[in-house]
Write a structure and sequence with these properties.
Layout lengths: L8 E4 L8 H13 L3 E4 L14 H13 L5 E3 L7 H4 L5 H7 L3 E3 L4 H9 L6 E2 L14 H18 L13 E4 L2 E10 H7 L12 E7 L3 H13 L8 E8 L7 H9 L6 E5 L10 E2 L3 E5 L6 E4 L6 E7 L2 E8 L10 E7 L23 H6 L3 E5 L25 H16 L2 E11 L1 H12 L6 E5 L17 E5 L8 H12 L5 E5 L7 H5 L4 H6 L5
Parallel strand pairs: 1-2, 1-3, 3-4, 4-5, 7-8, 8-9, 9-10, 16-17, 16-18, 18-19, 20-21
Antiparallel strand pairs: 5-11, 6-10, 7-12, 12-13, 14-15, 15-17
Helix pairs in contact: 7-8, 8-9
């Protein structure tokens, strides 16, 4: 087993209960034996009741570790109770900006779920220092369980595609196949967050649940609450882990089967994660595919998960973005950069929903082979726009200044150019709907930066057309668009031609506002795009 090269310093603290000192010390020694440097947060207050420290002190310790820029990851000391008391008081801007792996299970699930709400998708549902890593290894079976536990953690941190060990034995309760963000969690913690500001949106998720010391009737109650609150009906797949030390366990199979039948997607049981030993590690929020179409189910990272979850911060503004790299980066070679601006419906901070349109094209094997490139997909915050103008107008004047969101995109491009082998002569921008407006606006403000633009069902200030008359542009629109008038693209293309430009324009017949679907499938589009380069 081997941790990633970029993980050396491991922060250790407890957001919840009081860790067993002996097991904590053993866990730290085992981390050292793996070549890691465990660093425990400084303690300024004693435990309070069943909590590791008063709320303010647990928060301070956690923030202390995050503020240390040398910290590569945090592994929680233990679970217990307490995370739900403090998740709404944490510095989420700090957590988002650090964007490092945070590992734990049990009560730490509350932190993981709240992190999803805030767009953090690098957390890991996995072993803790005093529980799992510091476990007693007094038999050959427990030693083997430890090896399996740590190998799974290393696999997840290293980005291994297959999330199940070779000896995994899952039972298919409802066949099918589904892809969505994986949400592994403790069921009672998930139940406790329903209706609170920390509850993430489970729409389209592959939900994995487990618990300990809960009677069957409480598991029934928790699942019922998920159902009546609408969350269970929105997931795409369900994975049952172990429900250990259950009172009246003879009723449990019937309870699980009842709710499995109501899921709109595949359901499997028997996943060894959470309160079991060995315990599998699972990435929180990464896109996975659950394939239960055969008697041997699989769980693996989906191709769309190759878009790394990242955070950009500048001048007090935080912008989540997903970032795709070429499969292979050759030395002394530079690659194009595609910047994609999503539409209004994908705004937020979950750093996931912007992947739904256009971007899946770039992770297709044939496209990655033919057009190796970097792709940056920022997410505009809720309530903001790439361009501060109404979308239904027949025309608008270009605002004097960029919106905060679009200015952040411009800064992000600057940073990416410094950090990655990007060919500055081959930077392309494309956007849909609200992002179509952003595409036009961005190239008008920086006409010498971009090699080509693909605005789809957007609009711009036709009076500024001369600024980009020499830029290769291929615009798309549907002829029946009622959200953004087709006239917006038609008038911009006409203005470019009048200014001496030679834009390409495709208008799809009998097509409404979703012109991005046929646009990205236009066979000539990507060859045309990647052939463009700044002169």
């Amino acid at each position: 087993m081997k941790f990633p090269e970029n993980i050396k310093n491991i922060g250790i603290t407890s957001l919840s209960g009081i860790p067993n000192k002996e097991r904590l010390a053993i866990g730290c020694e085992r981390l050292k034996a793996l070549g890691l440097n465990p660093i425990q947060a400084t303690v300024q207050a004693p435990p309070q009741r069943y909590l590791a420290a008063p709320d303010e002190e647990r928060i301070r310790q956690f923030h202390e570790l995050l503020a240390n820029q040398d910290m590569d990851a945090i592994i929680m000391a233990c679970g217990g109770y307490g995370s739900s008391r403090i998740v709404n008081s944490l510095n989420w801007e700090l957590i988002r900006s650090r964007n490092i792996p945070i590992v734990g299970y049990s009560d730490v699930s509350g932190l993981h779920l709240a992190a999803l709400k805030h767009g953090c998708r690098n957390h890991v549902h996995g072993p803790m220092v005093s529980a799992g890593i510091g476990a007693k290894l007094d038999t050959p079976e427990r030693k083997a369980a430890y090896e399996k536990t740590m190998q799974s953690l290393c696999n997840v941190l290293n980005g291994e595609k297959n999330l199940l060990p070779p000896d995994a034995k899952l039972t298919v309760m409802k066949p099918g196949k589904a892809t969505g963000p994986l949400v592994p969690t403790n069921l009672s913690l998930l139940h406790d967050l329903i209706g609170t500001p920390s509850m993430p949106d489970l729409s389209g998720a592959i939900l994995a649940i487990e618990d300990v010391n809960e009677p069957a009737y409480k598991i029934d109650r928790y699942l019922t609450k998920l159902k009546v609150s609408g969350h269970l009906g929105r997931i795409r797949g369900l994975i049952y882990g172990a429900f250990t030390d259950t009172v009246d366990e003879e009723y449990l199979p019937d309870v699980l089967a009842e709710f499995a039948a109501q899921i709109n997607g595949p359901v499997v049981s028997g996943l060894e994660f959470g309160h079991v030993f060995p315990t599998l590690s699972l990435p929180v929020g990464k896109e996975v595919t659950l394939d239960a179409s055969t008697d041997t189910p699989t769980l693996s990272l989906a191709p769309i998960s190759d878009y790394e979850s990242c955070i950009y911060q500048a001048k007090g503004f935080t912008l989540g973005y997903r970032f795709l790299s070429p499969k292979t980066i050759e030395a002394d070679k530079k690659y194009p950069l595609v910047v994609f601006l999503h539409g209004a419906g994908e705004r937020g901070m979950d750093n996931h929903v912007q992947l739904v349109h256009v971007l899946p094209k770039f992770v297709q094997d044939d496209i990655r082979e033919q057009f190796p490139c970097f792709v940056a997909a920022p997410q505009c915050p809720e309530g903001q726009q790439w361009v501060n103008t109404p979308w239904g107008l027949k025309q608008h004047d270009m605002p004097q200044t960029m919106s905060d969101s679009l200015a952040a995109v411009s800064g992000l491009i600057d940073d990416l150019l410094l950090d990655y082998p990007i060919d500055a002569s081959r930077i392309y921008v494309m956007g849909i709907s609200m992002g179509g407006y952003g595409t036009w606006d961005l190239v008008m403000r920086f006409p010498k930066r971009f090699a080509a633009a693909v605005p789809i069902c957007g609009g711009a200030d036709i009076k500024q057309a001369a600024l980009i008359k020499d830029l290769p542009i291929w615009a798309f629109h549907g002829d029946s668009d009622t959200a953004v008038p087709t006239y917006r693209s038609q008038s911009m293309v006409a203005a470019l031609k009048e200014a001496g430009g030679d834009p390409k324009y495709t208008e799809f017949p009998n097509c409404g506002h979703n012109a991005w679907g046929p646009a990205i499938e236009t066979p000539e589009l990507l060859p045309w795009l990647f052939s463009q380069r700044l002169k």
